[in-house]
Amino acid sequence: MGKGELSCGCTHCIDPAMTDNHEAALFRWASRKDVSAIHALLEAAYRGEESLRGWTSEAHLLQGPRTSREEVMERATGPRSGFLLAERVGELIGCVYLKDEGGTAYLGMFAVRPACQGAGIGRALLAESDRKAKAAWGVIAMRMTVISLREDLIAYYERRGYRRTGETEPFPFDDAAGALTRDFHLTVLVKPV
């Protein structure tokens, strides 16, 4: 691999030769013009062929679209909510939805481009989410829900300071297209910030 060449050959990933893999990533709040790119990233990370290249795919549990452009627009432009984006060389490589819930921020729709997973972007994006939510809304904790069958994801979040609360929420099967199984719920995780 030549100097400056990326490990997968695409322009999205972080150069593994960098000493701090996330130093080239820029973080910013999304605007309306980012909706299509966010939607495409969420679909790539969770469903379909590209998602199978990463470890966050839900394609073995759910088929069909993960979300819609309309839902992304609503969340991106809602009161006291928005998407935090991670970009490199002007290209979207990660996103996370944040919403102020009064003292706690809900974190969802967390995605890193499958070809870029494992390069530290997810860890950096979660840390930046903590900082942005605390600065914007004065929150003291972050909350998320994860599909209960995804023990690998739950373990990933636990390594980042999240803890299981013992609470669960029903999975919105009526809103989800193509459930291949219905033997799961959502596990609630919380982290102090």
Radius of gyration: 16 Å
| CATH fold group | Aminopeptidase
| Order of SSEs | EHHHEEEHEHEE
CATH architecture: 3-Layer(aba) Sandwich
User: Which spans of ≥5 residues are poorly predicted at pLDDT below 50?
Assistant: 1-12, 14-23
Strand order of the largest sheet: 1-2-3-4-5-7-6
Task: Round the mean pLDDT to the nearest integer and report it.
Answer: 84
Q: What's the helical proportion of residues? A: 25-40%
Tally of DSSP β-strands: 7
The CATH class name reads Alpha Beta
Q: What class, by secondary structure content?
A: alpha+beta
Assigned CATH superfamily? Gcn5-related N-acetyltransferase (GNAT)
Q: What's the number of structural domains?
A: 1
Work out the helix count.
5
Give a summary of the structure in a few sentences.
With 193 residues, the chain is an alpha+beta fold. It is built from 5 helices and 7 strands.
Tell me about this structure:
There is one protein chain. The protein has one domain (26-192): 3-Layer(aba) Sandwich (Aminopeptidase). 26% of the residues lie in helices and 27% in strands. It has five helices and seven strands. It has helices at 35-46, 48-51, 69-76, 121-137, 151-159; strands spanning 26-29, 81-88, 91-100, 104-112, 141-147, 163-169, 186-192. Helix 1 (35-46) packs across helix 3.
